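Morning F.,

Quick status update on the modeling queue. The single chain you submitted on Monday has been processed. Sequence for confirmation:
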Amino acid sequence: MSLHFESASQLLRRLQNKEVSALELVDMAIQRMERLDGVINAVVVRDFDRAREQARASDAWRAAGKPCGVLHGLPMTVKESFQVAGLPTTFGHPSMRHHVAKEDAVAVRRLKSAGAIVMGKTNVPVSLADWQTFNPVYGTTHNPWDTSRTPGGSSGGSAAALAAGFSPLELGSDIGASIRNPAHYCGVWGHKPTWGTVTLEGHTLVPRALAETDISAAGPMARSAHDLALAMEVLSTPLTAWSPLGRVPVSWNDSGRAPRSCRVGVIWDDAEAEVDDAVAKPLQSLVEWLRRQGVPVVDLTHPKPGEPQRPVDSAEAHDVYIHMLRAITGARYDQATYEHARSQAATIVPGDTSYRARLYRGNTLSYRDFMQYEERRERLRLRWHAFFEDFDLLICPVATTPAFPLQPTGERWERMVSVNGQPQPSTTALFWAGYPALVGLPATAIPVEQSPQGLPVGAQIVTKPYADPLALRFAAWLESEWRAFKAPPLD
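Structure tokens below.
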């Protein structure tokens, strides 16, 4: 495989063995971006001069025999929404075009402290609020597998940069599958950690309190599950979790169970968000393969009475997630946007369960109403806890389809995707985003197969809180035994 598509772990071994220098890796990545990124438009903030300077310093440090961090000399990129000192952070807003960060986000600082070299920042949708990646500041990012299609969002530039061979490692964020969805669409790996274990401090447009945003998580994206584990070690050290009293020390909840011994539940479809056969059939194939390996697998898609059941009621989980998600994202609206949401909420009739209705109701929830949803979420959390008494992992879709054609106009719920020949609002797939995210569960997105159209198809591996190492270990086993990274036909 070309160096452009080797994993971060492989490149780090080459650096350690002095088969290649940091400067050579940086130059190689820059040359590839300059040749191909004009079409893909993934790395929209470029810091090439500083990257070369840091690479030279990295090589000199290693040559002097000084101790090196675990990412020493590795070039990488980060999502535009993370503050990087000296670079703009806009979230896609033209009014913030000249907003330059004065210091690094904590996650970026940890990556740099481990020796990583940040070459630039990758594109996002406006306010990180789409499964497409386009904005008035930087334009549209295209999927390297098919440039007429979305790379996903909001970490769409991140996934596109990985798939195109521009960068071996990325830092993303996820509240509505913004790590998992682009990984699925672009055929790469991504990990949404247990909520609060990787700090979001510095993932912001304006100064704010240091409390973590509910549901939202920061995490790594890569071309290998092994790289996710490596990056998580850096991003989560010291391991703490957010609490009402601030950050407190915690430990990983890892039984050490071997992948072949894991008790696995699989769901490949749901009435709340029907899944296209192009996604469902690869998951069914994975079930068959796991059984041939001796893995104890239970198909929970259509359970009969008396058989093991799904973790939670799907309709309840979907309703609670969308209302809480939109309450959280609406909490930072400016006054004009909030007033618009209030005027729209006033037009909604009781019983309307459309995405539009849930969006505007969620945007304008009172604290009393929000806490009622919080009570419902806690009951869902307890049901998940009971589920993980019997299962180690759950495998389910990330989205209802592979990457869909770019649709730059209209509201998100007005944009339709084709599911088994029928139109489905693109927002329906948020069900799968919220299934684990609502209660803070870790989820690792993995490539599974390719669709009949040759597009990547992924799945997410979900496990109990603080069991991130187990999900990552299972993902690494699948990578070795089932499917490794496949590069798109760019060259």
